[in-house]
Amino acid sequence: MGVLKGRTALVTGGSRGIGRAIAERLARDGARVAVHYGRDAAAAETVVAGIRAEGGEAFAVRAELGVPGDAEALWAAYAADPLATEGVDILVNNAGAPHFGGIADTDEAAYDRVHALNAKAPFFVIRHGLARLRDGGRIVNVTGTPDIALPAILATIAAKGAVNALTVSLAAELAPRGITVNSVGPGITDTDLNAGWLADPGARAHAASRSVFGRIGGPEEVADVVAFLASPDSRWITGQHLRATGGLQLALL
After folding, report:
1. From CA 1, how far away is CA 25, in angstroms rounded?
2. Which PANTHER family match (predicted)?
3. Around Cβ 195, how many Cβ atoms within 10 Å?
4. Is the backbone of residue 35 left (phi > 0), alpha (psi -120 to 50) or beta?
5. Residue 3 resides in a domain
6. 47 neighbors 58 (Cβ within 8 angstroms)
């Protein structure tokens, strides 16, 4: 613990999966972590309790994302917590969920829902948080891998791609404040979100074969990449997309 001592991080979707691993890693590095959740208060409090048990600082923040007024509600909930600091040093936009379906199976309502959560929410969480984000801060967007074809979640990939594009231009806009903006694209990751289909031995073996390492990645491996981008060591990296995929794109060549 140490490289993030004295800094405050907000992790959206921090109660489960990759978001939980990110929150726990940033806390181990010394940050005070606001663990955002949408519905499952018990899961968020479990993360908070675990961080505190290891000597870290954390608190839970509730706000449903993907609905009108979500970003304002998130920051209002953050500010209302007695453990919140006035400024935030690290913002990790991790919250999201897929819509399963190709173009023929995605109507306008489904498209709007997936973009509200995966693209619009990060945009406005950043917008409404800029006054609180300290100069020299870090924004890390957990998105997707743009050069891998995933037609089964087409609308989701389009939404994640929008945030990748946002990352590049926002990095240029915020550079005068010393704020870096980067994105991380996980590959197939062993989380509760994927637990159902990964329970099938054949599907799991196929998923593992997609990585050049011949295995499925864990959420902590994505969290380690995010932690680097949140640290002082990443000060000369901005507007970049890092693929935390275990060489997924290499295995497809």
Report:
1. 9
2. OXIDOREDUCTASE, SHORT-CHAIN DEHYDROGENASE/REDUCTASE FAMILY (AFU_ORTHOLOGUE AFUA_5G02870), SHORT-CHAIN DEHYDROGENASE_REDUCTASE FAMILY PROTEIN
3. 10
4. beta
5. no
6. yes
195 is a domain residue: yes
CATH of the domain at 28: 3.40.50.720
- Statement: residue 212 has pLDDT above 60: yes
Helices (H), 17-56: 17-28, 41-53
Digit-coded pLDDT (tens) for 9-68? 999 999 999 999 999 999 999 999 999 999 999 999 999 999 999 999 999 999 999 999
How many residues are there in the chain? 253
Amino acid at 87: G
Identify the domain containing residue 37 by its residue range. Answer: 8-251
Tens of pLDDT, residues 79-88: 999 999 999 9
- What's the domain count of the chain? 1
Residue 142 in any domain: the answer is yes
Q: Which helix (H) or strand (E) segment is 150 a member of?
A: none
Kindly report the CA angle at 129 between 162 and 82, in degrees rounded to 5? Answer: 135
